[in-house]
Inverse folding.
DNA sequence: CATGGAAAATACCACTCTGA
DNA sequence: TCAGAGTGGTATTTTCCATG
């Protein structure tokens, strides 16, 4: 039924034909290439002008993009990239109103001090203790670091794991829309920039891709961290929804996914995103 | 509960085929 | 030649799902 009646808004679109395929009128099918083209134009036009805020952030994106490419093209990649799996527990879903209450990291290289875990004082009540078991009393104490206390320690820890001239690839499940935005906001509130050599990789699309390549039905394709863990036969070490046990699960899941999808470190780095690419909300139609 | 990306559903066009 | 059904392709909108 293509009638549609009067209740639905129809939008007239330009006439299309089936002879030109997707890339008609010179459109670029690869979003990254397209972005690069757009940015190239921005940079060349802004060369004679003062850079305003938007142009500056776009210019930063180019620099990050270049870092990713440079690193990915480097033959001795393992000596440049530090892979750190991380997970955060928060007081809720809102990145504006809610705060981090626990953070855990694991450097996949292993060795001494390869893990880092701490509770974080959110300086507000914890109303979702039933999720992770972290209560207001546990974190609202003078001996639990606030985010502004923790950031310098965190930066120092990551720096200690980082290789000279290299970058850090942070891996988290649903990183793009959860952990990284929370981290960005926490840094922003403290007036600290996330280092430009920090790259992020989300295991959620990797899980989706892996399940698809296995041919499992979309309806039975749950790609939550715990579903992936069960699917891959990874034992649960500790309780779910505590940062360090989730990190341990994710570390195993991540390594299995990279193996299943045959993803070399170079492509992981190239597909990674930066903190500057987070927090620019896309316009969404009302539902 | 907030948010955004992916997948699915829907809309609509050009074109082909078929029967009268 | 014409009308109508069917098909293929693309654009847009809606729904689902992941995170604490």
């Amino acid at each position: 039924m293509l009638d549609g009646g009067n209740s639905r808004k129809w939008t007239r679109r330009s006439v299309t034909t089936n002879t030109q395929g997707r890339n008609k009128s010179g459109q670029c099918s690869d979003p990254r290439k397209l972005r690069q083209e757009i940015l190239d134009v921005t940079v060349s036009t802004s060369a004679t002008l003062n850079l305003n805020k938007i142009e500056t952030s776009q210019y930063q994106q180019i620099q990050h993009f270049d870092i990713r490419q440079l690193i990915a093209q480097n033959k001795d990649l393992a000596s440049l990239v530090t892979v750190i799996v991380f997970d955060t527990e928060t007081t809720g879903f809102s990145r504006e109103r809610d705060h981090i209450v626990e953070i855990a990291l694991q450097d996949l290289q292993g060795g001494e001090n390869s893990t880092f875990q701490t509770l974080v004082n959110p300086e507000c009540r914890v109303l979702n203790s039933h999720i992770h078991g972290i209560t207001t009393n546990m974190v609202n104490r003078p001996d639990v670091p606030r985010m502004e206390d923790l950031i310098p320690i965190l930066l120092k820890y990551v720096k200690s794991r980082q290789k000279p001239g290299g970058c850090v690839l942070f891996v988290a499940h649903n990183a793009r829309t959860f952990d990284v935005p929370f981290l960005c906001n926490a840094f922003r509130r403290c007036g600290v920039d996330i280092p430009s050599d920090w790259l992020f990789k989300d295991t959620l699309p990797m899980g989706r891709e892996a399940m698809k390549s296995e041919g499992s039905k979309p309806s039975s394709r749950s790609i939550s961290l715990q579903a992936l863990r069960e699917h891959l036969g990874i034992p649960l070490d500790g309780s779910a929804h505590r940062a360090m046990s989730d990190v341990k699960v994710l570390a195993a899941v991540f390594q299995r996914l990279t193996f299943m999808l045959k993803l070399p470190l170079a492509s992981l780095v190239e597909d990674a995103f930066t903190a500057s690419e987070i927090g620019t909300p896309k316009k969404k139609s009302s539902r």
In short: Residues 53-73 of chain A form the longest helix (21 residues). Residues 1-62, 280-287 of chain A have pLDDT under 50 and may be disordered.
